[in-house]
Design goal:
Length: 302
């Protein structure tokens, strides 16, 4: 959807979950010297200014990564994955920025690897191109290819990659109902021809979309198990609000309220096909700490 801009939501609870999973997968791929290919289908800008009026209007970063840092900053018993994530983003947060998935990917990947990014929004892709040229602490950057292209079509066309090791991150806006269908169609088709690729799908937890969400997840899971009954599949969910009490509003209503309306999501999830070793264990440990931190923050605010 060309009206969607992630700056409104950068650094929120959904990004925290998504990026913890992403970092675990990248670290897993980096354990071997062999090169790999990584696809990001809905790359957006890659780097976000948290002082931007759009970010400040929703306040999602303040209730997300900023709140988490404040609650976990002096915690000595952080789960390893969460500590790794917080240590990485700290430099950006200290500069009032938040790294999107392309920034994380290029920071963790190596010179022998290939990063393929796709973005359709005309302003977002210009921002992405500029951000991918910024100096990076990683001096062994991967080969980066940026496509001004529909992410679903790009992934279908370019898989399986020449280098068969690899992964894909898929995180559409879900502003269009068709995204639920497109996600299932694309993942089933891509997994069939790239059976060893790690496929990560981010999805929102929305009460009014529960039917579409569960149908999408069931279709992907059933399709994958039909090809390999022993495939490792992880379904990881971070619920930060009580589903039963959650009241949803439209995106326009939320923006107009300047953050006073309830957040639109009560949480989000990550479905991972060919989940790496210990992904579920490490992410669930991080989720436990994140939920406790947000609960403490909420109690303090009340």
């Amino acid at each position: 959807m060309l009206s969607y801009q992630h700056i409104f939501h950068a650094g929120n609870h959904a990004d925290i979950l998504k990026h913890c999973v992403l970092i675990h997968v990248l670290n897993s791929l980096n354990k071997k010297e062999k090169p790999y290919t990584f696809f990001d289908t809905h790359a957006a800008s890659g780097l976000y200014d948290l002082t931007d009026g759009r970010s400040l209007k929703t306040g999602e970063a303040g209730r997300g990564i900023m709140a988490l840092q404040g609650e976990c900053g002096n915690e000595n018993q952080l789960p390893l994955l969460l500590k790794f994530y917080l240590d990485f983003v700290k430099t950006y947060i200290d500069d009032s920025r938040y790294p999107g998935s392309p920034e994380i990917e290029r920071s963790f990947m190596r010179s022998q690897d290939t990063l393929i990014l796709s973005e359709l929004h005309p302003q977002e892709i210009e921002n992405l191109r500029a951000n991918m040229k910024r100096p990076c602490e990683n001096k062994n950057l991967p080969s980066i290819k940026i496509h001004n292209r529909n992410g679903w079509e790009m992934l279908t066309a370019l898989t399986p990659p020449v280098t068969k090791r690899g992964a894909v991150l898929i995180d559409p806006s879900y502003e269009e109902t068709s995204d639920y269908i497109d996600a299932a169609d694309t993942i089933c088709a891509v997994h069939k021809k790239w059976t060893n690729g790690i496929i990560m799908l981010w999805y929102p937890l929305l009460v009014h979309r529960e039917g579409e969400i569960e149908a999408m997840l069931d279709r992907i899971t059933e399709g994958a198990r039909a090809l390999n009954s022993n495939i490792e599949i992880a379904d990881l969910r971070l619920e930060v609000f009580d589903k039963a009490e959650h009241k949803e509003v439209s995106l326009d209503e939320f923006r107009a309220s300047e953050g006073k309306n309830p957040p639109r999501l009560y949480g989000s999830g990550m479905l991972v096909l060919n989940a790496p070793w210990k992904l579920e264990e490490e992410v669930n440990a991080a989720i436990g700490f994140i939920k406790s931190a947000f609960a403490r923050q909420s109690q303090a605010a009340n």
